[in-house]
Design brief:
deoxyribose-phosphate aldolase activity; Aldolase_TIM; binds glyceraldehyde-3-phosphate; DeoC/FbaB/LacD_aldolase; DeoC; lyase; alpha/beta
Length: 318
């Protein structure tokens, strides 16, 4: 990831003027999901692009060194070598965008990727993931420890209480402190959109997160009852576009939570291309946070290459 956001001052005037036209957002979101998508070779190429943007994730209570190691090896070789060879893509260095784990598993991931001779970044969730309801002191310490253990990307969750009670200055200050604690590591800010109550709050929280120096804004933890949806994404990417127009700073976008199918991955790529342009189709500015998406993409690529659907045993586990 090369793009960095130094942040900007908190512009409360801008935040107070925010209005979202909900019916228009819902109409546009519907249109993106229902339209015909790319086919054949183009589809395979888009799916490979999606693979390079996946933050391959495991965030479970029963995570151990061994499943994290397996995930890292899958991140290094996300698609079977013979399938890539059949598409003449075997020497293109296709890997997942990052591996995403809990702070306590960062060392396992760093070790596994080092052993595999692979430079994929390790992303750690932090700041009291998923609820963000621990004292600020411990949330900050969690960020510092994850960085110390080798995380080069931090997926921090915001304190949703501050959004729901309109405390924009306090939200900005907290995120600024997380940004400082991240040091050289990139910061992705998870809004937990399913908890924020309205599209207007989501737009405002997106702006505050970007003003406070987030390199990415991310929809969800995957643990809320509603996670990445297209209406929410539209509001967030339009906030990214407005922030870029006003400051010249490019902030990335990461939908996460419940993204499971290749078809959905294609719709997410279409949304990025149409709303933000080709610059946002790269892992530097776009990630898909997903624990169970890669398997379906690999199955679709297997079908593209062989004309058959893969049996369960044909593809290595993600
Ligand atoms: O940040 C990533 C999400 O937690 C993944 O959610 P998921 O398990 O629904 O794919």
């Amino acid at each position: 990831m090369s793009v960095r956001n130094p942040g900007a001052g908190l512009d409360l005037g801008w935040i107070s003027r925010v209005q979202v036209n909900q019916p228009a957002v819902l109409r546009r979101a519907e249109q993106i999901q229902t339209r015909r998508t790319v086919k054949k070779d183009w589809q395979a190429a888009w799916l490979l692009r999606a693979v390079t943007c996946i933050d391959l994730t495991t965030l479970s209570g029963d995570d151990t060194a061994s499943n994290v190691h397996r995930l890292c090896f899958k991140a290094k070789r996300p698609i079977r070598e013979d399938l890539l060879r059949a598409m003449n893509m075997h020497d293109q260095g296709i890997t997942a965008g990052a591996v995403c784990v809990y702070p306590a598993r960062v060392r396992d991931a760093v070790q596994a990727l080092k052993a595999a001779g692979c430079k994929i970044p390790v992303a750690s969730v932090a700041t009291g993931f998923p609820a963000g309801q621990t004292p600020l002191k411990t949330r900050l310490e969690e960020v510092r420890l994850a960085v110390e253990d080798g995380a080069s990307e931090l997926d921090i969750v915001i304190n949703r209480t501050l959004v729901l009670t309109g405390q924009w200055e306090a939200l900005y200050e907290e995120i600024r402190q997380f940004h400082e604690a991240c040091g050289e590591a990139h910061m992705k800010t998870i809004l937990g959109t399913g908890d924020l109550g309205s599209l207007t709050n989501i737009y405002k929280a997106s702006l505050v997160a970007m003003m406070a120096g987030s390199d990415f804004i991310k929809t969800s933890t995957g643990k809320e009852s509603v996670n990445a949806t297209f209406p929410v994404a539209l509001v967030m990417v339009r906030a990214i576009r407005d922030f870029h127009c006003k400051t010249g700073i490019k902030v990335g976008f990461k939908p996460a939570g419940g993204i499971r199918s290749a078809k959905e991955a294609l719709a997410w790529l279409s949304l990025m291309k149409e709303e933000l342009g080709a610059d946002w189709l790269k892992p530097e500015l776009f990630r898909l946070g997903a624990s169970s998406l890669l398997g379906d993409i690999e199955r679709q690529i297997y079908h593209h290459v062989t004309g058959r659907y893969a049996a369960y045993h044909d593809l290595p586990m993600a």
